Bifunctional protein FolD (Salsuginibacillus halophilus), 284 residues
Amino acid sequence: METVRLDGKALAAKKRESIREGVEKFTAKSGFAPGLAVIIVGDNPASHSYVRGKEKACEKAGILSEKQHLSADVSEKELLDMIGHYNEAPHIHGILVQLPLPDHISESKVIEQISADKDVDGFHPISVGRMVTGQKTLLPCTPAGIMEILKAYDITLSGKNAVVLGRSNIVGKPMAQLLLNEHATVTVCHSRTPNMKDLAKSADIVISAIGKPGLVDDTYIKEGAVVIDVGISRLEDGTLTGDVDEAAVQGQAGHLTPVPGGVGPMTITMLLANTLQAAEEQTA
Ligand SMILES: NC(=O)C1=CN([C@@H]2O[C@H](COP(=O)(O)OP(=O)(O)OC[C@H]3O[C@@H](n4cnc5c(N)ncnc54)[C@H](OP(=O)(O)O)[C@@H]3O)[C@@H](O)[C@H]2O)C=CC1
Ligand SMILES: Nc1nc(=O)c2c([nH]1)NC[C@@H]1CN(c3ccc(C(=O)N[C@@H](CCC(=O)O)C(=O)O)cc3)C=[N+]21
Ligand SMILES: [Mg+2]
């Protein structure tokens, strides 16, 4: 069968244009732009590259972004104080602390320090609780972006078997929750799952968020299944690659997101959408 390519990049471009228009209206009405503070600790080149992507996207959308680069040996208290400052800053409506953080800083303390109203990553326990109970909230960008891709391609979730590979707080767990909220039957696999391949093979929808290049080949995929590749790894030659062996699943999967050009661009798009939503809610 012909595998349909799920073009996250094209969908992202379309959505960013409508977000740009929303930002323009917001700015005309309120007299100031939506504002995002991005805090990055240390010198990890991948993290800096993602943050540059976020800043560029904000600029194009008309969102003010304010970057703070802290050195890797910054104290936890200094970081918490900086977040406290942005919690009170009226021109900032969203706060993002790029993960991962150095080992001497508690990620959960940092996330809890962010005011839930400004939690544009959707990682705060208050945001997570709202998501789990089906209340309106800022949703985690990667899972929310995947839901937008599935919706744009009219992929039915209700009654389907979805298997999520990976259980991190930022991708796997919230992904499973959003699929459950849309009435899929959800299985979550991780490093202690002995029969991951069999579970994946039985799924209508497989979402891989592990970070192991090429792990998911055609032996994991049922004929016609929807395959979403969240994984991003940089190979030695500098190319980006996903968890899915694209050549192997070609012709087997019904739909597939490429890497790059699939989930990643939608993650940034949802960050823009969340920042606009946060600004609207804070000025309502
Ligand atoms: N496209 C995008 O926008 C984004 C992409 N990513 C990418 O997605 C991937 C996952 O990110 P993230 O969730 O933060 O990663 P984590 O490292 O936090 O989580 C990885 C998960 O995969 C599980 N795992 C690891 N190895 C195996 C294995 N061999 N078999 C089964 N399960 C395994 C781990 O299990 P256990 O819990 O038992 O340790 C864990 O639950 C990475 O490649 C990351 O770069 C991340 C965020 C956004
Ligand atoms: N607080 C926090 N929030 C995050 O959302 C967050 C984070 N920390 N830490 C790291 C991960 C990773 N992540 C990506 C975002 C965009 C692309 C992306 O745009 N990828 C492009 C390729 C970009 C390139 O060429 O480098 C693509 O897949 O096509 C990828 C990964 C957000 N994360
Ligand atoms: Mg084949």
